[in-house]
Write a structure and sequence with these properties.
Layout: H1 3-16, E1 20-25, E2 28-34, E3 42-48, E4 67-71, E5 76-79, E6 95-96, E7 101-107, E8 110-115, E9 120-125, E10 131-133, E11 138-144
Antiparallel strand pairs: 1-2, 2-3, 4-11, 5-7, 5-10, 6-9, 7-8, 9-11
């Protein structure tokens, strides 16, 4: 992993006030750790990842029939509304159409709109406003409309 990539991750840690971050790319695992003080230096450890040690995908519980899970495509901050005092994009029970904005995830000062994959009804919202979410975090469960 190149120094600039490590610096980018260190900046993300500071922005999100994380104390640790582990990233794996190109067969190398990099672990960044910060002591609890905000001005503490970031400690970097870089180790090769053996091919056999790659974790297997955890078995997922079977999804409820007709329910679609919308997951976070990145690590960032979840925002349920376009502005601080605005109404949320959706609430539990909201009817959505494919392509409707469900939320925003802020990652590295970029606002990324997360949209519905299908028409349906929002059954569950899996994150709170201003909550940090990880890659793969289930943000919404939507009961898909039957054609």
């Amino acid at each position: 992993m190149h120094e600039q990539e490590i610096r980018t991750y260190a900046g993300l840690m500071e922005e999100l006030q994380l104390t640790g971050l582990e990233v794996e790319a190109d067969g190398v695992r990099v672990r960044l750790e910060r002591l609890h003080a905000p001005a503490a230096p970031v400690v970097v450890s870089q180790t090769p990842v053996p091919a056999a040690a790659a974790p297997a995908a955890a078995p997922k519980a079977p999804a409820e029939s007709g329910v679609v899970e919308v997951t976070s495509p990145m690590v960032g901050v979840f925002y349920s509304a376009p502005a601080e005092n605005a109404e949320p994009y959706v609430t539990v029970g909201s009817k959505v159409k494919k392509g409707d904005v469900l939320c925003i995830i802020e990652a590295m000062k970029l606002m990324n709109e997360i949209t519905a994959d299908c028409d349906g009804t929002v059954l569950d919202i899996g994150a709170g406003n201003n909550q940090v979410v990880d890659y793969g975090h289930v943000l919404f469960r939507i009961r898909k409309e039957q054609p």
